[in-house]
Write a structure and sequence with these properties.
A hairpin with a 4-residue loop joins strand 1 (about 30-40) and strand 2 (about 45-55). The chain has helices spanning about 10-20, 130-135; strands spanning about 30-40, 45-55, 60-70, 70-75, 85-90, 100-105, 110-115, 115-125, 130. The chain is mainly β and about 140 residues long. The chain is built from two helices and nine strands, in the order αβββββββββα. A five-stranded antiparallel beta sheet has the order 1-2-3-8-9. It has a four-stranded antiparallel beta sheet with strand order 4-7-6-5, with no helix packed on it. The radius of gyration is 15 Å and the shape is globular. The longest helix has 7 residues, at about 10-20.
C-alpha cells in the first residue's frame, strides 16, 4: 500500500503503526455499518456519512472508518463481509474529480461510493482494546 497516497486520512499514522504492511482488504468482516445524514446549516444542504467498523477474519484486529460527505450512487449489497475492500485516492488518478476518495469492493462490487474525507480509528489489535491501551 502506498502510504503517501493516504497521508491525508485522519488517524492514518496510528493505522500504519499497527498495520504497516496490511492492505485494505485485510479487513473484511463487517461488524457495524451505519449510514446517516446531518444538515449543514452553513452550506444549507444535507451531508451524508457512513460509519463502517470492520475486522480481520479472526476478529482480532478491528478498525472504524468514518466516511464523510458521501456522494454518488451508493451501492451496498453484502452479507456481513467483503472480499476486496479498497480505498482509492482519486487525487492521484484524476485531479479534476470533485471528491477525494472512492470506496469499493473490487472483488464482488458489493460496495461502491465516493467521499471527501475519511477518519480511521484503530479499535483493537491482537484482541487488545486500543482505548484501554491509551489509558495505560
Amino acid at each position: 500500500m502506498d502510504k503517501e497516497m493516504y497521508k491525508d486520512i485522519r488517524g492514518i499514522e496510528k493505522f500504519f503503526e499497527h498495520f504497516p504492511d496490511k492492505p485494505w482488504h485485510y479487513f473484511h468482516e463487517i461488524i457495524e455499518l451505519r449510514w446517516y445524514r446531518e444538515f449543514d446549516y452553513e452550506e444549507w444542504y444535507n451531508r451524508f456519512y457512513i460509519n463502517l467498523v470492520m475486522s480481520d477474519r479472526e476478529g482480532k484486529d478491528i478498525v472504524s472508518f468514518l466516511f464523510k460527505d458521501v456522494s454518488g450512487s451508493c451501492h451496498m449489497d453484502f452479507c456481513g463481509w467483503m472480499a476486496g475492500f479498497d480505498i482509492v485516492n482519486l487525487k492521484y488518478i484524476d485531479v479534476n474529480h470533485e471528491t477525494r476518495y472512492e470506496i469499493m469492493d473490487f472483488e464482488d462490487s458489493d460496495l461502491h461510493f465516493f467521499c471527501s474525507d475519511i477518519e480511521i480509528k484503530v479499535l483493537s489489535v491482537n484482541w487488545k482494546d486500543q482505548a484501554e491501551c491509551s489509558k495505560e
